[in-house]
C-alpha cells in the first residue's frame, strides 16, 4: 500500500505532475488561438461553453505548438525542465538547439506530447477535485442535494448517495493515477525525443577522443621532459657529491649542467601547462627539436657521467618540424632510460640515420642490474610506442644476444601534420 501511495503521490510523481501542469499552462495561448479559428467556423459565440468546441480548439492548438517548437530555445528549456522535474539523468538529454531535421522533428513531437498531456491533466486537475469534493460531502449536507448543482438524478437514490463519498475518493485516485501515468510516460519518452541522436553521440565521442588525445600528449610531454630532467639532475648531483673534495672542476660542471637542465625544463613545463589554461597562449617557447637542441641534450647527458657516442648521418634541419619534435622526445627518453638502468660506468651508442623514406633512431647500452620500477612508473617505452604509432612508424625495444639493451625506432620521413 505504501508503495502504491508513493507511486501516485511521492516526490517524483508530484514533480512530474507539476511538469504536466506547466505543459497545460503553455498550451493555453495555443488553445485561445485555436478558439478564434473554431468560433467563426462553427458560428459559435461561446466556444468555451461547449465541451466539443473546447476539444476542437485543443486539436487546432497542438499543430500550432509543433510549429513553434522549432524555436531554438525550445529543446534547451524542455531538457532542463525534464531533468529537474521528471528525474531524467542529465547525460541522456541534449541541451543545445536542435539543428538537424531529425532532431527538430523529435523536438516537435516532444513539445506536442508535453502540451497535449499537460493540457488534459491540467484540465482534470481543475475539474476533478471540486467534483470529487461535492461527491464526498453530498451525504453530509442537505443543501448540496437540494441545490442539485447539475448532479445526475441517480444520486437521489439512497444507495447511490451512500456510495458517493467512495466515488469521490475514486475520482481523486484516478486523477492521481492519470497524472502519474502520463508523467512516467513522458519521462520514458524524453531520452528518445530530447536525447542525443546518432550524430550527436558521434560528435560527443569525437570530442572525448580529442580531449583524451590532448591529455595523453600532455602526459607524454610531462613524462619525457620532467622525468628526463629529474633523472639527469639526480645523477649529476650524486656524482658531484661523490667528488666534491677531490674534483672541484667536475663539481662546477655538474652544477652548471643542473642549472641548465632545470632552466630548460621549467620553460618546457610552462609550455605544456599553457595548453591547459583555457584561452592562454603557449608558454615561453616551442617544444625542443632535434635541429634545435640535440647537441645540448647530449651535453647535459654526458655531464651526468654517461658516455654517449653519437653518430648522426641525418640532417636534423631537413626534418619536418613535427617529426623533429617527436624524434627529439624519443632520443631523450631513450637516453633517460640509459641513465636509470644502464650498467655503470656505461657507454651508450646513439645512431640517427636517414634513408629515402625512413628516419631510424637506435639507442644501445650494456645491460645493468634490473632496477625495480617505482610505483606508477615504467611509462617511458609506452610513450615512445605511442609517439611512433602516431607518426606511422615502428619501434622495438629489448635485450640483444650481445648483452646489450637496444631501442630502435623507424619513422616515416613525411610531415605527420
TrEMBL record:
Keyword Transmembrane attached: yes
Catalytic reaction equation(s): ATP + protein L-histidine = ADP + protein N-phospho-L-histidine
Region (Disordered) location: 394-417
Gene Ontology molecular function: any one: kinase activity
All copies of domain Signal transduction histidine kinase subgroup 3 dimerisation and phosphoacceptor, residue ranges: 215-279
Record InterPro entries: HATPase_C_sf, Sensor_HK_TwoCompSys, Sig_transdc_His_kin_sub3_dim/P
UniProt enzyme class: transferase
Keywords per UniProt: ATP-binding, Kinase, Membrane, Nucleotide-binding, Phosphoprotein, Transferase, Transmembrane, Transmembrane helix, Two-component regulatory system
EC number(s) recorded for this UniProt protein: 2.7.13.3
Protein name, entry field: histidine kinase
Taxonomic path: Bacteria, Bacillati, Actinomycetota, Actinomycetes, Kitasatosporales
Amino acid at each position: 500500500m505504501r508503495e502504491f501511495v508513493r507511486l501516485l503521490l511521492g516526490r517524483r510523481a508530484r514533480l512530474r505532475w507539476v511538469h504536466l501542469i506547466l505543459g497545460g499552462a503553455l498550451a493555453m495561448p495555443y488553445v485561445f488561438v485555436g478558439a478564434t479559428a473554431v468560433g467563426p467556423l462553427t458560428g459559435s459565440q461561446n466556444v468555451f461553453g461547449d465541451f466539443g468546441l473546447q476539444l476542437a480548439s485543443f486539436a487546432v492548438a497542438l499543430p500550432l505548438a509543433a510549429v513553434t517548437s522549432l524555436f531554438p530555445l525550445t529543446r534547451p528549456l524542455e531538457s532542463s525542465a525534464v531533468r529537474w522535474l521528471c528525474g531524467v539523468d542529465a547525460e541522456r538529454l541534449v541541451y543545445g538547439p536542435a539543428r538537424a531535421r531529425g532532431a527538430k522533428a523529435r523536438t516537435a513531437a516532444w513539445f506536442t506530447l508535453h502540451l497535449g498531456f499537460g493540457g488534459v491533466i491540467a484540465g482534470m486537475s481543475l475539474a476533478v477535485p471540486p467534483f470529487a469534493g461535492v461527491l464526498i460531502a453530498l451525504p453530509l449536507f442537505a443543501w448540496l442535494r437540494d441545490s442539485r448543482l447539475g448532479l445526475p438524478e441517480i444520486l437521489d437514490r439512497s444507495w447511490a448517495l451512500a456510495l458517493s463519498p467512495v466515488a469521490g475518493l475514486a475520482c481523486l485516485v484516478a486523477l492521481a493515477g492519470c497524472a502519474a501515468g502520463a508523467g512516467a510516460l513522458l519521462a520514458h519518452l524524453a531520452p528518445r525525443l530530447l536525447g542525443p541522436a546518432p550524430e550527436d553521440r558521434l560528435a560527443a565521442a569525437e570530442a572525448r577522443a580529442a580531449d583524451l588525445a590532448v591529455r595523453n600528449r600532455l602526459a607524454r610531454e610531462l613524462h619525457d621532459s620532467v622525468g628526463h630532467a629529474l633523472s639527469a639532475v639526480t645523477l649529476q648531483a650524486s656524482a658531484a657529491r661523490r667528488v666534491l673534495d677531490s674534483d672541484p672542476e667536475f663539481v662546477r660542471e655538474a652544477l652548471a649542467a643542473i642549472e641548465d637542465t632545470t632552466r630548460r625544463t621549467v620553460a618546457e613545463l610552462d609550455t605544456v601547462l599553457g595548453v591547459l589554461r583555457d584561452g592562454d597562449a603557449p608558454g615561453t617557447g616551442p617544444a625542443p627539436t632535434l635541429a634545435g637542441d640535440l647537441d645540448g641534450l647530449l651535453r647535459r647527458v654526458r655531464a651526468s657521467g654517461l658516455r654517449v657516442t653519437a653518430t648522426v648521418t641525418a640532417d636534423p634541419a631537413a626534418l619536418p618540424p613535427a617529426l623533429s619534435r617527436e624524434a627529439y622526445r624519443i632520443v631523450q627518453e631513450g637516453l633517460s632510460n640509459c641513465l636509470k638502468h644502464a650498467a655503470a660506468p656505461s657507454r651508450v651508442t646513439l645512431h640517427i640515420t636517414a634513408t629515402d623514406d625512413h628516419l631510424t633512431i637506435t639507442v644501445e647500452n650494456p645491460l645493468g642490474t634490473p632496477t625495480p620500477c617505482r610505483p606508477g612508473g615504467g611509462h617511458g617505452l609506452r610513450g615512445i610506442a605511442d609517439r611512433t604509432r602516431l607518426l606511422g612508424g615502428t619501434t622495438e625495444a629489448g635485450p640483444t644476444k650481445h648483452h646489450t639493451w637496444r631501442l630502435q625506432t623507424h619513422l616515416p620521413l613525411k610531415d605527420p601534420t
